[in-house]
Amino acid sequence: MELTGSQILLESLKLEGVDTVFGYPGGAVINIYDDLYESSINHVLTRHEQAAVHAADGYARCTGKVGVAIATSGPGATNTVTGIATAYMDSIPMVIITGQVPTPLIGNDAFQEADMCGITRPCTKHNYLVKDIRDLARILKEAFYIARTGRPGPVLVDLPKDIQVTTHKFSYPDKVSLRGYKPTYSGNIRQIEKAAKMILAARKPVLYVGGGITLSGADDVLLKLAEQTKIPVTTTLMAMAAFPQRHPLALGMLGMHGTFYANMSVTECDLLIAVGSRFDDRVTGRIDSFAEKAKIIHVDIDPTSIGKNVATDLPIVGDLKDVLGKLHGYLNKKPELVEDLVEATEEWRSMISEWKERHPMTYRSSKSVIKPQFVIEKISEMTAEDAIITTEVGQHQMWAAQFFTFREPKTFLTSGGLGTMGFGLPAALGAQVAYPDRQVIDISGDGSFQMNSQELATLVQYKLPVKIAILNNNYLGMVRQWQQMFFEKRYSQTVMELPIDFIKLAEAYGATGLQATKVDEVEATIKQALETPGPVLMNFIVSREENVLPMVPAGKAIHEMVLAS
Amino acid sequence: MKHTISVLVENEFGVLSRISGLFSGRGFNIESLSVAPTMDTDLSRMTLVTRGNDQVLEQITKQLNKLISTIKVVDFTGGDYIERELALIKVSTDAESRAEALRIVDIFRAKVIDVTPKSYTIEITGAPAKINGILELLRPMGIKEVVRSGPVVIGRGAKGVVA
């Protein structure tokens, strides 16, 4: 049967198992939207194309499925760029469909024309301009395949308007044939055996785990391996939920705002086992003193991540699930040696326990003013650590990572690599669409929230009961903190002079607004929010000049922390 | 250190910008780049010359391989290979210097491909060093224009680079 390009698109989405897309209509995608009108695919209309992409991203992060967003050509398409770059930096599987001006007009500076393949080349895993209807089904098949395999990432398909209305016989390919794309899944067994030997010989080993662990679905096998070997686990921002933070082996986050004990463990370890992490500068601090006493094993599916920032003693390219599974299996066959390892590393673990006791993750509590950390502890406690948490970017994001006790993978959705303010609300929207019955909470700052606050409308329209906790200090807090610490308190353009009435803002959209200004109101506010149906915004007026600590100043080694007093 | 790398890529729309964008976006330098389709018309072969230490070159090679459009990357540096570049040189000549110019052309096994009363246009192929050599000798006569293709390379021996 002959189908139009836009029908081919929708049929292909169905065959890829896509039941929900996020988007925003426009002239260059009007045919797609006409076909969506009667389609079984559920479309969520956001109020901005950037939010559509973040929502698809949030949906992808909490489900593991490929997120799909649609936008029109020109400004619609360029609005998606921040969302795409956010997903690219965190390796999130996404397919973004943008409309394009008709093929005969491409390059003519036509109305609402933008060279999207050119613009998104450096922030997509791959992109396509469909120039011939005969290529469309193949391109969509490849786009989904590329997005979800190997190191996942966003793929953009730019679809000109004339292709959307041209008809062609629809046949969706079973397989892809990409000569230049064959990710390595299976880890080299010799390298894995070498890794096992290095682990067995270590006396101060640490597992340094990144977002790849969740992308690979290797969270379970990581837990097994850690418990088998009793090796302490420090997680990056991207992996906070990948390892139960109540676990005795959990060291929490490392790096610029990492725990004292995580940073000390990495500094003092003799073997650093990096899995699905990429030695980001926010993790390493001054690179030449990062884990300088340690041999480094680095496991990653992306060869470019290995040896990029630090020299590796043992590289292993492969899927973490495969590699850690084989490693666990190999060690299972040597129970005596593993027992020796556990015994020989007893001293190391007690050294770490001492660090934990000396400088636990803490803050100075207050009875007179709401501490932002206190709000997060309360949310953690009152949701029984069972909520899906999203964040924006800044101080509140770091406090969420430090003080929410994560226990289940895919429950902490945050923009780690790109650090995109305005990510959290639309990501929460996407997560709530994926899991209508779960508790989804966006932890936000007053600055970040205003970057995509229009999405309150989407929450109300679709009856999505997302709860928003604004830790409101009326500052751009993280930049203010830097200005306080390194620029003699010259608060240049970080004071949000205008006090916004967030309750009225919520109510204007038809959501519920709550406010807490005193410490003893915090619990009641959270309780009321959790019990109120529909979207609720909580505005917590917090201590204004609270700092995120510990902090490793830029250019310092990670053991040179400024600690909470 | 200088490296000469061959890259087999899909012969498709935008592939050159993927490669050049990778280099500019990641701060790698390109000294020269030449591209043309191969026997298999679905593929193009690029030869590029770049500089960097071992760590940089490792990243360049890995990043090139990571592109979906890249089929194969071969760094010829340190191996046994033949390198050739084509140059077209327009040199000023007068009655006095014409004979000398021809002698130089002869010594370098180059060719004169266009003649006017005031100029010779010379074609030469060879390793980049050889082209630098003839340019050095022709310079005193007055070089009006030089067009160089950038080097292309092929490995020695019976084995070829295939996709």
Architecture blueprint of SSEs:
The complex is a heterodimer of chains A (about 575) and B (about 160).
Chain A: E1 2-4, H1 5-15, E2 20-23, H2 30-36, E3 42-45, H3 49-63, E4 67-71, H4 75-79, H5 81-89, E5 94-100, H6 116-120, E6 126-129, H7 136-148, E7 154-160, H8 161-165, E8 167-169, H9 189-201, E9 205-209, H10 212-216, H11 219-229, E10 233-235, E11 250-253, H12 260-268, E12 271-275, H13 281-284, E13 295-300, E14 314-317, H14 320-332, H15 335-344, H16 346-358, H17 372-382, E15 388-391, H18 395-403, E16 412-413, H19 424-434, E17 440-445, H20 446-449, H21 456-461, E18 467-472, H22 477-486, H23 502-509, E19 512-516, H24 522-531, E20 536-541
Parallel strand pairs in A: 2-3, 2-4, 4-5, 5-7, 6-7, 9-10, 9-12, 10-11, 12-13, 13-14, 15-16, 15-17, 17-18, 18-20, 19-20
Antiparallel strand pairs in A: 1-8
Helix pairs in contact in A: 1-2, 1-7, 3-5, 3-19, 9-14, 11-14, 12-16, 17-18, 17-24
Chain B: E1 2-10, H1 15-25, E2 32-37, E3 43-51, H2 54-66, E4 70-75, E5 81-92, H3 98-107, E6 111-116, E7 119-126, H4 128-138, E8 143-148, E9 152-155
Antiparallel strand pairs in B: 1-3, 1-4, 2-3, 5-7, 5-8, 5-9, 6-7
Describe this structure in words.
The complex is a heterodimer of chains A (565) and B (163). Chain A has 565 residues and is α/β, with parallel strands linked by helices. Helices cover 38% and strands 16% of the residues of chain A. Chain A contains 24 helices and 20 strands. The radius of gyration of chain A is 24 Å and the shape is globular. Chain A starts with a strand and ends in a 24-residue tail after the last strand. The mean pLDDT of chain A is 97. With 163 residues, chain B is α+β, with helices and mostly antiparallel strands. In chain B, 28% of the residues lie in helices and 40% in strands. Chain B is built from four helices and nine strands. In chain B, β6 and β7 form a beta hairpin. Chains A and B meet through loops of A and α1 and α2 of B.
